[in-house]
Specification:
The protein is of the alpha/beta class. Bound molecules: pyridoxal-5'-phosphate (PLP).
């Protein structure tokens, strides 16, 4: 690819030098301040892990299900979620999605009798249809994956407080650098979770330093001008060398203290950033409303944090290449998941809508850090794209 200092990055890793400094100070603090978590989620039980996937592993282990129990999970997600299920000794049972990009209650109905627990994902920050899903799930332990949905709401309830338990990935929207958060709503699960948490190793201080330094460098290369000059060209080179069909396991540990302090600090005013990102998304929606594109919509009684802005396009490769030439980078999020799941996780081909979405998805930048000129550039590039009818 041609180096481009003006390229707008696909993701917003807003982990600043101040955040890095907060991280380093937190490593030496004894206690984490939970006030921001309590004021966001209410009086729940909270546990921190090194990743969101570790939090899911801990939850599944704590359920003490028989080995190889089937855990319902949308096929449309990151494969590390499937790894967490397998590492806990179980088997993913794939459920299709609907045009909200989240679990299809109709497909769940067909498969629910086989399941021992259910993982619902509020993909791209879009709350899943929780009333319908809860009704179908009945007494199954219900786990919300809120890795994308920090501060999204469903019928006035913040996501992560609707099911029995929830996981969050703090490296994503919040840009805390890294880390996972486990929230327990149904406190009958707390005792077993505490026991499982006690079995995780604590990362050494040297790892905390290393991790936070890498997070800062990564964030730096996700900003202009470095993203288009170095970050993406190097990323694309490495991407071609990675064998996606080989499973890799990441180490599962308790929290990096480096990230708990940043999480508490950033959570206090994160609603303001979400509001800006919503405004940016509404601007893009308005600009693109006369196109033939399938645009994201906000359902009734739902508050979407617009973590990501998805579009589906037929000629995806041509569209993303064209947009990159216009200095707009995009993702093809989870586009390889069905293929990898067939190869590695026993996916039997019964999620046709997910497969169709995976072949056509792109996400365009809508970050709260973008200014009006950037947003106008993104809208103009999409509107002028000759590969979109
Ligand atoms: C929907 C979803 N859930 C969970 C995860 C795992 O988060 P983490 O990287 O913190 O383990 C991801 C990661 O990409 C994700 O997209």
């Amino acid at each position: 690819m041609r180096p481009d200092p003006f390229l707008i990055p696909r993701f917003n890793f807003d982990y600043t030098l101040t955040d890095f400094s907060t991280s380093i100070k937190s490593i030496f603090k004894e206690e984490c301040d939970l006030e921001a978590l309590h004021s966001t989620f209410g009086q729940k039980d909270f546990f921190f892990t090194n990743y969101g996937r570790t939090a899911l592993y801990v939850i599944l282990k704590s359920l003490n299900l028989p080995p190889k129990s089937k855990i319902g999970v949308p096929l449309y997600c990151c494969t590390v979620v499937f790894d967490a299920i397998i590492n806990a000794g179980h088997t993913p049972r794939f459920i299709d999605i609907n045009d909200n990009y989240t679990m299809d209650p109709e497909d769940l109905k067909n498969k629910v009798d086989e399941l021992s627990a259910l993982v619902v994902i509020h993909t791209f920050g879009r709350p899943a249809e929780m009333d319908k899903i809860k009704k179908i799930a009945g007494k199954l332990p219900l786990i919300e994956d809120c890795s994308h949905s920090l501060l999204s709401e469903y019928k006035g309830k913040i996501t992560g407080t609707i099911g029995d338990m929830a996981i969050f990935s703090l490296a994503k929207y919040l840009s805390a650098g890294g880390g996972g958060l486990l929230v327990v709503n149904n406190r009958s699960f707390t005792k077993n979770i505490r026991k499982e948490m006690g079995l995780l190793n604590k990362p050494p201080v040297s790892d905390e330093f290393k991790h936070a330094s890498i997070a800062y460098m990564r964030a730096l290369f996700y900003h202009k001008p470095w993203f288009g000059l170095v970050g993406l060209p190097v990323g694309l080179m490495l991407e071609n060398k990675v064998d996606l069909m080989t499973k890799k396991s990441s180490e599962m540990t308790a929290e990096y203290k480096a990230y708990t302090g940043v999480t508490s600090k950033k959570l206090r005013d994160f609603r303001d950033k979400v509001e800006i990102q919503r405004k940016n998304s509404f601007f893009l929606l308005d600009e693109l409303k006369d196109s033939s594109l399938f645009l994201p919509f906000e359902g009734k009684n739902v508050y979407c944090n617009y973590y990501l802005f998805p579009l589906t396009v037929k000629n995806r490769d041509e569209v993303s290449t064209y947009l990159r030439k216009q200095s707009v980078d995009t993702t093809k999020l989870f586009s390889l998941t069905p293929k990898i799941a067939k190869h590695n996780y026993g996916y039997a081909g019964d999620c046709p809508f997910t497969e169709a979405i995976s072949d056509t998805i792109i996400t365009i930048p809508n970050h709260y850090t973008l200014h009006q000129t950037g947003l106008k550039k993104i809208a103009a590039a999409v509107k002028c794209c000759p590969y979109i009818d």
